[in-house]
Amino acid sequence: MRFFLVLLFVLLPSLAQSPLPCRVGFLHLQEAIRGHPDYPRLAELQAKANAEAAPLMERLRPLEERVLSGQASAKERQEWESLRNALAALQARWQERMAPLLRVIEEALNQAVARVARQRGLCLVFSLERATELGLLVYADSQAVITEAVLEELRRPK
After folding, report:
1. Of 5, 128, 140, 157, which is least packed with CB atoms within 10 Å of its CB?
2. What pLDDT tens digit does each residue of the chain (158 aa) get?
3. CB-side exposure of 144: number of CA atoms within 13 Å?
4. Which domains are assigned to the chain?
5. 27: phi then psi, degrees, rounded to nearest 5
6. Is 124 helix (H, G, I), strand (E, B) or coil?
7. Residue 27 in 3-state DSSP?
8. How far is CA 119 from CA 15, 34, 116, 123, in A?
């Protein structure tokens, strides 16, 4: 992470001095993902996965508290480990089922962002939430946010 920040601070001045204009855009990434036409199918799969995981989580939570506090018996630790393994296997199964749909959404989103960025003359597009979360963004003019244009691009018939 530090390497990335150092690299960013080293590169930004050189980008600013570049003879080519380098404009930056920002995207509300989660909003753009939710705006993809296939997102309802993904949300449905996620809801099914959560529903299937809920009973395991319900059994796991009290055991986890006891294990982490050091108060669990050997039998409780064994049950906790077994439940964790079952939950991990269940999550892996659902992730495998969702992966193709996630790839479709990701690919379409990347293409839409690239098209909008080219149309607006942007050379960089950042996730607004991640840039803010990492402390990389202090201010962004609302005109730099391209979310609505990306959503329109996603809705455009191919």
Report:
1. 157
2. 444 444 445 455 555 555 567 899 999 999 999 999 999 999 999 999 999 999 999 999 999 998 889 998 999 999 999 999 999 999 999 999 999 999 999 999 999 999 999 999 999 999 999 998 998 888 888 899 999 999 999 999 87
3. 15
4. 2-56+100-155 (3.30.910)
5. -130, 135
6. strand
7. strand
8. 20, 23, 5, 11
Query: Which pTM value belongs to this model?
Result: 0.74
Return d(Cα 27, Cα 110) in angstroms, integer: 11
* Integer angstrom CA distances of residue 128 from 24, 51, 109: 11, 31, 15
Query: 72 Cβ partners below 8 Å, 6+ apart?
Result: 63, 66, 80
Cα torsion 118, 120, 123, 128: sign:
negative
String of DSSP letters for 53-64: HHHHHHHHHHHH
**Is 113 exposed, middle or buried (CB count within 10 Å of its CB: 0-12, 13-18, 19+)?**
buried
